[in-house]
Specification:
421 residues; alpha+beta; Rossmann fold; Dna Ligase, domain 1; 5-stranded parallel beta sheet; 23 strands; binds adenosine monophosphate; binds glycine
Length: 421
Amino acid sequence: MNLLLIGSGGREHALAWALAKSPKLTRLYAAPGNAGIAKVAELCSLDVSDHAAVIDFCRDKNIDFVIVGPEAPLVAGLVDDLDAAGIKSFGPSKAAAQLEGSKAFTKGVCDEANIPTAGYGRFTSEAPALAYVRDKGAPIVVKADGLAAGKGVVVAMTTQEAEDAVQACFSGSFGDAGAEVVIEEFLEGEEASFFVLSDGRNALALATAQDHKRAHDGDEGPNTGGMGAYSPAPVMTDALVADVMARIIEPTIATLAARGTPFKGVLYAGLMITANGPKLIEYNTRFGDPECQVLMMRLDSDLLDLLLASAEGTLDKATAAWKDEVALTVVMAAKGYPGSYEKGTRIEGVEPLSSDGLEVFHAGTRSEGGNLLANGGRVLNVTALGATVADAQRKAYEAVAKIDWPEGFCRTDIGWRAIAR
Ligand code: AMP
Ligand code: GLY
């Protein structure tokens, strides 16, 4: 089969690396890709927001299957347009991608299907939102409704902070994403990510992971896209997985199917494991980044078969096998990230590191004249398999130490919570 993979992050490098192992693969194209993806795919400079151009490319290259990595093209309806052109693809329709595209939409699904989640109010103007905050008090969580690149959520520890966040949303800090605001009850517990494939009717549990969203050691500093992750998440026992499937995932899939907008693709549930059981924090409609990197390291089945089963409606016959080992990834980012940072700095020592059980997935990289250059905020994902979290952590940091990139940094404690258990 000829495949087109959309995206350019560490997530897409991990997907490309896994797809490249499939015996069904003939040619793999990636748009736009990065320097790591270029080792297993042909990069093409397609504007993926131009759906007609993507369709033309697919016809020209006889693409059999398109795999969409990031959320933006999903929410923009790329899968719908490919469908209409008769081109098979992996990922949800625009309507089903609202599970990620609108927090209020997801809350509506939770209400309809009785899914455990934080209590909330939704607001389209400032005064009632401020009144709600004053009535409920802190801690409280203020969220811009739409996609805000992970920056639209404020976990407010004081009423003042929450009021400031409400005002920021309604004064346009998040553009259209903040035109509606969801204000939520603060949930206490341990967070975990849970990944499931769906074909619209059936749900196949993949694996669990935990990420580290804060920029600095000890889970301090500003929020980022994720500074490291490991899989499995020790907090997610088999009993919890079964509970989450029965009370959160399956009702979601059933509700979207009943509405006539079935969810196909990967559903990523952000969960809070509270004293009263698991609660849904949010859905994403794509693989997590960097969670995907640890999932792909542990996957012992053909990824292409699984993604095809999601697109073709045959997930009831599919199984996913996982290595017993733990996978852990350390994100190396450009100094300054998630604020401003330099691009174009040179990185050395990456190439010889890949071995059995160790991969360096590329995120923001490009190659120029044989040199590897940083080309983004999150740049490399040093990913190791180990018998335990501590073992995988040691292997990953040993590899990090061999990478020569003075302009980069990473957290030194990825996996601490699991190790502390
Ligand atoms: P979200 O983008 O909705 O996943 O929110 C980003 C982060 O904010 C989550 O990963 C949590 O750490 C935190 N968060 C979101 N909602 C809540 C909540 N209701 N209670 C406590 N923390 C939350
Ligand atoms: N690592 C968090 C995310 O992909 O949204």
